[in-house]
């Protein structure tokens, strides 16, 4: 198995990508991990680590920056680390791609370079949202497509169900539709039409789900359009940041609160770890004709390692082939 890693994607690149790759290499000895990046920056880091036998370098000359216009960057920067990694997947030189780079550019790479699975209208980003029980909830789409149709949401539901059952071993994953209320006729025209179609779809549809219940995992696959989903995601991230900042301020405000913090610290660390995006690796891009994992832009080395291991599992469980087979029957 060969996994291509965009060494220059993310806020902490290339150091985090290289260190994460080296960590994953130790845990995945049967995988060839290919760092795609500028040799003058990446090679010294690999050499300093003793150049593991299952880590190789593929040279790139350019980098797609965070503020680049996605589709234009993919078309013009053909020698960028992200585009080369995508081309390797398309041409069979790699089985998967992992990047923490520009989200829009990675979506464009998936569409324009790797290509869609036949029958899929819109690929979707499907991250695992942290939940209180530590299992997590697969949510799609959380930002790839701002304008979706009911048919797109049904495709998301089917792909999400296949992911949960194939990669996570869930027998009958519960599918919920993000809405403003749980009643069947709640919502806008999109959710009302999607509700009717999801009731007839080959998934275990349990109805509408409100965002306030997401952290308690009242479903296993949460379906939504990218606009509403991204707002929900950013709200959750902002709330988590604010809560932990407020806790830190309170626990450092006096001698007594510092003593209390010392007692509570192990439990708080466990809770923070449970709610940390790095635990889950990245968001699979479902619907493209190859495994593509979008790691968080601020991923550290451990998040990169988890993203690589996630890609490994998706390839091992033949996720792309399973989705392609399902939609070829339609």
Automatic annotation (TrEMBL):
Primary site of residence: cytoplasm
PANTHER family membership: FATTY ACID/PHOSPHOLIPID SYNTHESIS PROTEIN PLSX, PHOSPHATE ACYLTRANSFERASE
Reactions that this protein is recorded to catalyse: a fatty acyl-[ACP] + phosphate = an acyl phosphate + holo-[ACP]
Annotated source species: Paenibacillus thermoaerophilus
Sorted UniProt keywords: Acyltransferase, Cytoplasm, Lipid biosynthesis, Lipid metabolism, Phospholipid biosynthesis, Phospholipid metabolism, Transferase
Annotated localization: Cytoplasm
Similarity comment text for this entry: Belongs to the PlsX family.
Broadest EC class assigned to this enzyme: transferase
Signal peptide: none
Function: Catalyzes the reversible formation of acyl-phosphate (acyl-PO(4)) from acyl-[acyl-carrier-protein] (acyl-ACP). This enzyme utilizes acyl-ACP as fatty acyl donor, but not acyl-CoA.
E.C. code: 2.3.1.274
Subunit and interaction comment: Homodimer. Probably interacts with PlsY.
Cross-referenced InterPro entries: FA_synthesis (IPR003664), Phospholipid_synth_PlsX-like (IPR012281)
Pathway assignment: Lipid metabolism; phospholipid metabolism
Stated name of the protein: Phosphate acyltransferase
């Amino acid at each position: 198995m060969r996994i291509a890693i965009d060494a220059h994607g993310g806020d902490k690149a290339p150091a985090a990508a290289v260190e994460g790759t080296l960590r994953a290499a130790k845990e995945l000895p049967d995988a060839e991990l290919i760092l795609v990046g500028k040799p003058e920056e990446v090679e010294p880091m690999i050499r300093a680590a003793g150049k593991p036998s299952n880590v190789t370098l593929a040279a790139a000359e350019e980098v797609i920056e965070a503020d680049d216009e996605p589709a234009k960057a993919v078309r013009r920067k053909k020698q960028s680390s992200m585009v080369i990694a995508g081309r390797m997947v398309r041409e069979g030189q790699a089985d998967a791609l992992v990047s923490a780079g520009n989200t829009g550019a990675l979506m464009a790479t998936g569409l324009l370079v790797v290509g869609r699975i036949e029958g899929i209208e819109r690929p979707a980003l499907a991250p695992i949202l942290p939940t209180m029980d530590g299992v997590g909830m697969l949510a799609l789409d959380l930002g790839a497509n701002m304008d979706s149709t009911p048919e797109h949401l049904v495709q998301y539901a089917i792909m999400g169900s296949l992911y949960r059952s194939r990669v996570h071993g869930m027998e009958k994953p519960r599918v919920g539709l993000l809405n403003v209320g749980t009643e069947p006729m709640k919502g806008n025209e999109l959710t009302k039409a999607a509700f009717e179609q999801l009731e007839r779809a080959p998934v275990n549809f349990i109805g509408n789900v409100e965002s306030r219940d997401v952290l308690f995992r009242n479903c296993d696959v949460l379906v939504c359009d990218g606009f509403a989903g991204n707002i929900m995601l950013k709200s959750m991230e902002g709330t988590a940041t604010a809560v932990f900042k407020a806790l830190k301020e309170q626990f450092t405000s006096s001698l007594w609160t510092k003593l209390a913090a010392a007692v509570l610290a192990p439990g708080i660390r466990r809770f923070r770890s449970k709610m940390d995006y790095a635990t889950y690796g990245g968001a699979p891009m479902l619907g493209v004709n190859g495994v593509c994992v979008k790691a968080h832009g601020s991923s550290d080395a451990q998040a990169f390692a988890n993203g690589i291991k996630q890609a490994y599992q998706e390839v091992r469980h033949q996720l792309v082939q399973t989705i392609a087979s399902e939609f070829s029957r339609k």
